[in-house]
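Comment thread on ticket #2218

A.B. wrote:
> Attaching the input chain for the structure job we discussed in standup.
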Amino acid sequence: MTRMVMLATAGSLSLALVTPLSSAAHAATTNAPGANAASASADAAAGDRRCKPRLFYKIHRLSPRNFFVPRTRFIDGPGGSMTASVEREAEVLAYVETASERERSVTTDDLVRSLRRAGVPHLEQRHMVLTGHSYTREVSKGMYGNMWYRVFGYRIGWSSWSVLGTCRRIKVASGIANVPARVEGWRYWETKHPQYKGRQLSPR
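C.D. wrote:
> Ran it. Output below, let me know if you need it in another format.
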């Protein structure tokens, strides 16, 4: 009687849905020997959560970055037309910087694979520049044209987490990763003087 009163206070819909289950459960409890012990055991098991131990990554920051290919920087001018092409091999590798040397080792392969699953499918652990392509630009009058071949990519802030058997999550490492993408091409810009890394190379 007490159980029926409690269900009625929950509303007519709750009463209609739960009453048949309550009656069946009450009958099973009355007729089955040791049912109370089994019920207590089931409740304890439900409270004892278990998870499969695993390692996963979180992405905290993702900003575009250029990986410039060595010895592909060209300057022409003033004015005129400028054409450049890549006919050499170069390799751009992903690399990981951890926040502390004492932290657990994280491989670039594991990190890149996780980033692909997280929705950045064009990332890769290494990018080979084999032939590249030619690129032509008209340089503005009195200006110097600059070209530099690059591989597109990202600078990524990441952290890795371990899931224990108790479902508890523990942070095991964090840091920065520089990861190339599968896209490459020329960067072009103009300056008033020939310059390299902000320093003027020639007055004319």
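A.B. wrote:
> Thanks. Noting for the ticket: The first strand starts at residue 54 and ends at 76.
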